[in-house]
Design goal:
16% strand; 36% helix; alpha/beta; 9 helices; 290 residues; 12 strands
């Protein structure tokens, strides 16, 4: 049987803002660790790497020199890989700190968060609150980040924690600073967002503007069914230590690359090939460097 002509873009999110080596020792902290893990993910089939920069002690950072050094190290070892920087960075970062690193480094793509929301750590069995936080993404921030991304030729990865994220984006997009196609990421399982439900993914897919692409990511055990359904529906897949430190059987993942390998197997079962970085750029409308 001929392969489907719709290749799947696989993204590896290496760290996030909260996953630490005590959660999984493969979580990268150092510049070299970022480069090595990105290379493994690229070789496994990932076209894109999503980066929350860390200091050597594991703390999330917005410091431009550090973000640039991690970005450069990844690109030196894996020149063709597409790097998507996080504009969320971590807790207690100001909008100015979150945006400055994107403007300075000018990656081809960066995350663009669409909801102000609870973003907490709660025991899902007992409801006991361990950490409570409000993640601010006001309409003024959506405007300022959107304009800055456009001016610096950074393609937004539009992160939606529920369907209102799509609506928020479409309202602010009337200002005219989003280039086509738009690229959405459906985020599941954050405490303060929505749990993964197949019918909700279908609803969110149906709410997308014409010509838009979508991918998905999900926290913990929701990661695998959400990504499988995204691939079934013609969408893309994001895995990695940011969202889940284990494999479907409950074993610790050897690294984000092992979850990428799982994505490749799922795609093959659905008659889809992993997109190359060049194909990913074409699909998502990434501008070629001048």
């Amino acid at each position: 049987m001929a392969k489907d002509s719709n290749p799947v873009i696989i993204c590896a999110a290496l760290t996030g803002a909260a996953t630490m080596k005590n959660n999984n020792p493969s979580t990268p902290y150092t510049i070299q660790e970022f480069a090595e893990e990105s290379y493994k993910c690229r070789q496994a089939g990932a076209a894109m790497i999503h980066v929350h920069a860390r200091m050597d002690d594991g703390q999330p950072t917005h410091e431009i020199d550090r973000v640039q050094a991690i970005y450069d190290a990844i690109k030196e070892k894996s020149p063709d890989v597409l790097v998507c920087l996080s504009s969320a960075v971590g807790i207690f970062k100001t909008p100015e700190e979150r945006l400055a690193q994107i403007i300075a480094v000018k990656p081809e793509m960066a995350s663009y968060n669409t909801n102000s929301m609870n973003f907490s750590i709660i025991d899902r069995n007992t409801g006991i609150i361990f950490f409570d936080y409000l993640f601010d993404n006001t309409f003024t921030m959506l405007q300022d980040f959107g304009k800055a991304f456009e001016e610096n030729k950074v393609k937004p990865e539009i992160e939606c924690y529920d369907v209102s994220g799509i609506d928020n984006t479409m309202i602010i997009s009337k200002q005219g600073f989003f280039t086509q196609p738009m690229n959405f990421n459906f985020v599941w399982g954050v405490v303060g967002g929505q749990r993964f439900r197949p019918e909700m993914m279908i609803a969110m897919k149906n709410a997308l503007p014409p010509g838009a692409n979508f991918t998905t990511c999900a926290v913990g055990v929701e990661q695998f069914p959400a990504n499988m359904m995204s691939c079934i529906l013609g969408g893309n897949m994001r895995v990695g230590m940011e969202d889940n430190t284990r494999m479907p059987n409950g074993d610790f993942a050897k690294g984000s690359y092992e979850q990428v390998e799982w994505c490749v197997k799922v795609a093959a079962a659905l008659n889809r090939e992993p997109a190359t970085p060049a194909e990913a750029r074409e699909i998502m409308g990434i501008r070629k460097e001048s």
